[in-house]
TrEMBL record, chain A:
Gene (name only): etfB
Protein name as it appears in the record: Electron transfer flavoprotein subunit beta
The keyword Electron transport is assigned to this record: yes
Residue ranges of domain Electron transfer flavoprotein alpha/beta-subunit N-terminal in the record: 23-215
InterPro entries named among the record's database cross-references: ET-Flavoprotein_bsu_CS (IPR000049), ETF_a/b_N (IPR014730), ETF_b (IPR012255), ETF_beta_N (IPR033948), Rossmann-like_a/b/a_fold (IPR014729)
Keywords, sorted A to Z: Electron transport, Transport
TrEMBL record, chain B:
Listed PANTHER family: ELECTRON TRANSFER FLAVOPROTEIN ALPHA (PTHR43153), ELECTRON TRANSFER FLAVOPROTEIN SUBUNIT ALPHA, MITOCHONDRIAL (PTHR43153:SF1)
Superkingdom classification of source: Bacteria
This protein's name: Electron transfer flavoprotein subunit beta
Entry similarity comment: Belongs to the ETF alpha-subunit/FixB family.
InterPro entries associated with the record: DHS-like_NAD/FAD-binding_dom, ETF_a/b_N, ETF_a/FixB, ETF_alpha_N, ETF_asu_C, ETF_asu_C_CS, Rossmann-like_a/b/a_fold
Presence of keyword Calcium: no
Entry keywords, A to Z: Electron transport, FAD, Flavoprotein, Transport
Organism: Amylibacter marinus
One Pfam family from the record: ETF_alpha
Length: 253, 308
């Protein structure tokens, strides 16, 4: 079975985001970028399925600026077999919307014909939580989002999903899209020899135009602003003072 | 303009809180039709009809919709979409599973986790774990929007809209439900509780989480947790608060043994009053806390429970 794993290059999750003073966006110049944490988990899951003999080939796909090559090299170093980069923007500040990403992924899938797509539940930059579901709709495939456990059979997958009330298990027919949640696995680090080997693995490059997909945004970003700041608080000396403050000052108990 | 609001329904149960808050958020956009889609959802539809400002309720009672599977519910909504300019739902895990699928079927973008409706085309939403707020204007013919309900008050329950039953559309039969593992609890719901007491890695074990729960019970509060506490098995997954867990905005949030990573803050920093109990005075949680107590939680939490 062939698996496609879409991986997004995003601001590293440890970096404190700065909103530009003119309200035009978030400053991404000279900040550390990494693979979206959920996508690392998706890559890891694909590798584990390959190690278990259930998957033959893992193809990582990234859409965005040329520098997303680095993210694909990371996926290759972890254990993906080959990679496809779709250049859809010249500017790191220009985020490609999930609908356009889903259309580009569909074009890749029409060519590659995988049985499974493992993607992240959400990109930690736009926090949209949409691409997997959109792709699944465009393909007319089944979907299982927020996976914390995946049992893959030859024509179906049984997936435990993290939902508001607890956990839900569903069985989806293949081909399917599975979006992964944080507790599915602990992604591995790429070893130095594997990083070297990854440099020789195939990385194809295409453009959005090659695939005939219009990536013009549907959402115009009117402005980007800082969230409301909280007023500075106080340190209380003991439990008694805390109780008094909550009763008399805050009036919440 | 007309709005279709997908109610948060599971069988006969409706989350009045989530549905009523989403209703408030979109009331200015036009006549609101509420859709209840589940199995045996007649009672849920009757309840939805009492929410103030609802023009009409559509009830799609069918086994196909019984477990909220995305494919059949999305097909149903897409089949109804012609009559509406806005298709909205509270941003629950169930709706966020379905709405992007609906949007793609309609060839429009989805707008997730909206915190403010500026006008019919323009919405505010947090990005980067709430470290920035983006205002977006949609050029799509229809807007598919999920509402982050924490910041809205629920609509009242004195209405009496008409309920119309509709038949199911064809089920693509792509997936089937196997089981739900739901924790039953007498405590208030995390997303609607007035008070939330949360524990983090500092609590140290599932056993010791009892002291967090005891404080919560004293305050009639919901219990929350950091991702580290959930990953370590101290607390179930549905207690997680944060960027990828639940977003809460109670009157009082008490964080015990939680460092205050941005991903956690994303889920609680809009709480009215924040209390942090942490033994490390440098912990970032103190930067957002109204009241900070530098103490060992194993002393402070039981003492606080006793003092209340
Ligand atoms: C993509 C992504 C998404 C994430 N989503 C979320 C999310 O939704 N929610 C979330 O919470 N996290 C999330 N995280 C994880 C987040 O980055 C932090 O790792 C996590 O919040 C840390 O949890 P913690 O504060 O309990 O643990 P720690 O950071 O280990 O902090 C423990 C704290 O307890 C204190 N402590 C220890 N013992 C005691 C004691 N006896 N008395 C008092 N204090 C004590 C310590 O001083 C410390 O400050 C996410 C991470 C990623 C990468
Ligand atoms: N530009 C992109 N390139 C590759 N994969 C992407 C891209 N955008 C989104 N994805 C995938 O879709 C998931 C969900 O992203 P989102 O819908 O933007 O929150 C991510 O975790 C990735 O797996």
């Amino acid at each position: 079975m062939k698996v496609i794993v879409p991986v997004k290059r995003v601001i590293d999750y440890n970096v404190k985001v700065r909103v530009k003073a003119d309200g035009s966006g978030v400053d991404l110049a000279n900040v550390k970028m990494s693979m979206n944490p959920f996508d690392e988990i998706a890559v890891e899951e694909a590798i584990r399925l390959k190690e278990a003999g259930k998957v033959e080939e893992i193809v990582a796909v990234s859409i965005g600026v040329k520098q997303s090559q680095e993210t694909l090299r990371t996926a290759l170093a972890m254990g993906a077999d080959r990679a496809i980069l779709i250049v859809a923007s010249e500017d790191v500040h220009n985020d490609i919307e999930p609908l356009a990403v889903a259309k580009l992924l569909k074009a890749v899938i029409d060519e590659e014909k995988p049985e499974l797509v493992l993607c992240g539940k959400q990109a930690i930059d736009n926090d949209m939580n949409a691409t997997g579901q959109m792709l699944s709709a465009l393909l007319g495939w089944s979907q299982a989002t927020y996976a914390s456990e995946v049992a893959l059979e030859s024509d179906s997958a049984t997936v435990t999903r993290e939902v508001d009330g607890g956990l839900q298990t569903i069985k989806v027919k293949l081909p399917a899209i599975i979006s992964v949640d944080l507790r599915l696995n602990e992604p591995r680090y790429a070893s130095l020899p594997n990083i070297m080997k990854a440099k020789k693995k195939p990385l194809d490059e295409k453009t959005a135009a090659d695939l005939g997909v219009d990536v013009t945004p549907r959402l115009e970003i009117v402005k980007t602003s800082e969230p409301a700041e909280r007023a500075a608080g106080v340190i209380v000396s003991d439990v008694a003072e805390l109780v008094a403050k909550l009763k008399d000052e805050a009036g919440v108990i | 303009m007309a709005v279709l609001l997908l109610a948060e329904v599971n069988g006969a149960d409706i989350s009045v809180d989530q549905t009523a808050k989403a209703l408030t958020a979109v009331a200015s956009l036009g006549d609101v039709t509420v859709l209840c889609a589940s199995a045996g959802c007649g009672d849920a539809a009757a309840t939805a009809a009492t929410l103030d400002g609802v023009a009409r309720v559509i009830c799609a009672d069918d086994a196909a919709y019984g477990n909220g599977l995305a494919e059949p519910v999305a097909d149903l909504i897409a089949s109804l979409a012609g009559d509406y300019d806005h298709i909205v739902a509270p941003a629950t895990s169930s709706a966020k599973n379905i709405l992007p699928r609906v949007a793609a079927l309609l060839d429009v973008m989805v707008i997730s986790d909206v915190t403010a409706v500026v006008d019919g085309d323009t919405f505010e939403r947090p990005i980067y774990a709430g470290n920035a707020i983006q205002t977006v204007k949609s050029s799509d013919a229809k807007k598919v929007v999920s509402i982050r309900t924490a910041g809205f008050d629920g609509a009242g329950e004195t209405g009496s809209a008409a309920v119309e039953n509709i038949a199911a559309v064809a089920n693509p039969g792509l997936s089937e439900w196997v089981e739900d593992k739901v924790q039953e609890s007498d405590r208030p719901d995390l997303t609607s509780a007035k008070v939330v007491v949360s524990g983090g890695r500092g609590v140290g074990s599932e056993e010791d989480f009892k002291i967090i729960e005891a404080l919560a019970d004293k305050l009639n509060a919901a219990v929350g947790a950091s991702r580290a506490a959930v990953d370590s098995g101290y607390a179930p997954n549905d207690w997680q608060v944060g960027q990828t867990g639940k977003v809460v905005a109670p009157d009082l949030y008490i964080a015990c043994g939680i460092s205050g990573a941005i991903q956690h803050l994303a889920g609680m920093k809009d709480s009215k009053v924040i209390v942090a109990i942490n033994k490390d005075e440098e912990a970032p949680i103190f930067q957002v806390a109204d009241y900070g107590l530098v103490a060992d939680l194993f002393d402070a939490v039981p003492a606080l429970t006793d003092a209340l």
